[in-house]
Design goal:
12 helices, C8orf32 fold, 277 residues, 2 domains, alpha+beta, single chain, 5 strands, five-stranded antiparallel beta sheet
Length: 277
């Protein structure tokens, strides 16, 4: 079977299962192979399994939070050379997990997925944090918590450092709130990964490429009203009236309260009139 077709099928199945049952790295690899003709996830999954095995051997039995984080950093960042630099933010391939495994360098969210996968393979609690401007990870073992930056070699972040990062991301008036520590579920991590690609394509006016990314995101979260609205507006911009109508109808079916409904309803009527004239 065609690898891309298989990956789309597996991504679509994510919408049918509980979020905690989503295998984050497998899903990210299925997204990645859509842009790499003929590539399959299996060799990359074997590499991640090897990473996780090495982490476990380094950590030993029953490590505390600091020992577990040290094992992750020593194996992933130092032994295998995974990390990031500012140059990755201008490269779309830095969001592709296959490319990152091949080149050992990628976006914070992609490096973070590798850390999370290796931690969870040991039975440790590891979740992404939807922090403004930078994807972070919370590691928790026996009630001990560490928030760290996988992109920066596993650096542990204290509240004053998080506050500085927050102000750099959204302005000097920003104050660190509980919401900034919120866990990002597995689907949320995947959407954050793909959102980077979508935004890059839109800024470059590569609208067809942006639509492909949105279609991938909708495989994972088919009831995401915002994505249907975005798809509809892009189709309107490209003067693809039937596709715009279909997307906006789906948006209105899903979103029953947003302030965007009025404009979408009026636009939908205009598009229907355009077809009927």
């Amino acid at each position: 079977m065609n690898p891309a077709r298989t990956s789309r099928k597996q991504l679509k199945s994510i919408s049918l299962i509980a979020d905690e049952d989503v295998d984050l790295a497998t899903a990210a690899l299925n997204i990645a192979v859509l842009d790499r003709s003929g590539v399959t996830p299996e060799p990359y999954l074997r590499h991640l399994d090897k990473l996780a095995q090495d982490v476990g051997l380094y950590a030993g039995p029953e490590p505390d939070a600091d020992q577990a984080l040290e094992a992750l950093v020593q194996i992933i960042s130092r032994r295998y050379g995974y990390g990031g630099n500012e140059g990755v933010f201008g490269e779309l391939e830095s969001a592709n997990l296959c490319h990152v495994i091949d080149n050992r360098c990628g976006l914070p969210v992609v490096i973070g997925i590798i850390y999370i996968q290796c931690a969870r393979a040991q039975g440790w609690s590891a979740t992404g944090i939807d922090f403004p401007g930078r994807f972070l990870i919370r590691l928790e073992i026996n009630g001990e918590r560490r928030i760290f930056d996988a992109f920066d070699g596993g650096a542990v972040l204290q509240p004053f450092e998080l506050r500085t990062m927050l102000k750099a991301a959204i302005g000097n008036d920003a104050e660190l709130l509980q919401e900034h520590y919120a866990d990002l579920d597995n689907r949320g991590v995947l959407l954050r990964l793909e959102n980077y690609c979508k935004v890059r394509h839109l800024k470059a006016e590569r609208f067809d490429d942006a639509l492909k990314v949105i279609e991938t995101m909708l495989l994972i979260t088919p009831d995401n009203a915002t994505l249907w609205r975005e798809a509809g507006m892009i189709h309107v911009h490209l003067d693809r009236v039937p596709q715009a109508i279909e997307a906006l109808e789906e948006y209105l079916r899903l979103d029953t309260s947003s302030s965007n409904r009025y404009r979408a309803t009026a636009l939908l009527q205009e598009l229907r009139n355009k077809i009927n004239t």
